[in-house]
Amino acid sequence: MLRNALPTINTPLPGPKAQAIIERRGKAVPNAINCVYPCVISRGEGAMLEDVDGNIFLDWVGGVGVLNIGYSHPELIEAVKEQSDKYFHAMMNIVTHEGYIKLAEKMNQIIPVKGEKRKTMFVNSGAEAVENAVKIAKSYTKRPNIIVFSGAFHGRTLLASAMTSKKAYSSGIGPFPDGVYRAEFPYLFRGPQGYTEEEKIAYYADKFKKVFEEASPPEYVAAVVIEPVQGEGGFIPAPLEWVKAIRKLCDENGILMIADEVQTGFARSGKMFVSNYWAEAGYAPDIITTAKSIAGGIPLSAVTASAQIFDGVKSSIIGGTFGGNPLACASALKVIEIIERDNLCERALDIAEKCKEKFNLWQEQYEEVGDVRGIGCMMGIEFVTDKKSKNPNPKLVSDIVKCAASNGLIIESAGIYANVIRFLCPLVVTDAQLESGLQILESAIEKCRSN
Length: 451
Fold this sequence. Notes:
Helices cover about 40% and strands about 15% of the residues. By secondary structure, the chain is of the alpha/beta class. It folds into two domains: about 1-60 and about 345-450, Aspartate Aminotransferase, domain 1; about 80-340, Type I PLP-dependent aspartate aminotransferase-like (Major domain) (Aspartate Aminotransferase, domain 2).
């Protein structure tokens, strides 16, 4: 059974069937939608996938955080089939479908935003959720500007591209929307030398305040948009004390705090959302965006805020044809049920403990492992040329990714220097599969660092 299988490579990669399909891809699909993996999926179960040539891979990327409950969960398949027998589509601006209401009610229960009464809207992608959150903040506050951060990734639509830090994602497609200003994110590993962690956090809080002086006065700022753990930026967690400082500045100046939990949500962190950690400490966001694992692979995303904020939004500026599609809503309700029933938040912490023990050992053993970081089961390993200089080592990471894939482990790089290996393994991975993946990754590190 694939769900319990271990990585097994039977052919040179890509195999003959995969090679033929990849060649067709090159002729039919834009090269800009690039892929470095020599794999064409035929089926997936749990944390494993099989390619068209019968090779079996362990997937530590999970569609970039989409598959927290794994591939092809049988209960998810049944939930979508059951809904498909009734109807595929019902636009909420035209007819009400109860699945949208049930999912909104559930999201309002579990999303930790400020305010006792909450409301949720649905769209289709992470970028759509982020753009709608910004529109909501601007409509509610009647202010034109937002603040984002270095290292941020919020999507590839026009406003989201302006918000995204790495301009390789948006080269040559400007001009971009105005009113987007950038502060420095607390990248503690590369923070000021000689500072304590507390001093670094104070340093980054002071750098944030500089935006008010140099870019936009606070009274013109509608919202601050934060990834609780930066994804593409290198799996960098926002320190809780820094969040506290930003929350205080937002409250003092009537600015909304938006948490972009597109990649961090749905048990990945050891809680349903990273914002749960913030809320328990008294610093809940005003608006939270979610997507990726929300519906197990069916396109869906959400924006949740207090009823007060949503009721202050001008009519007709939010909504859309496919937002809250019935199939996606049925899938999302089942995903949340599975996460809660199967204690996947606890499983995330268990996986994280096993991996961190190994990752920290590598940090001690290898000069090239500069930093190990993350929250729960969203972890990153940053590779450098040496610990003293901390010079990024993207070539080593690229070699490790290719070597691991050739041995049946799919991993992905991240970071502003492309020198971080990200860990987004499905939370349904077995202990045996996890151990197998750790062995493959360690062998790849050993082999590639000696080349």
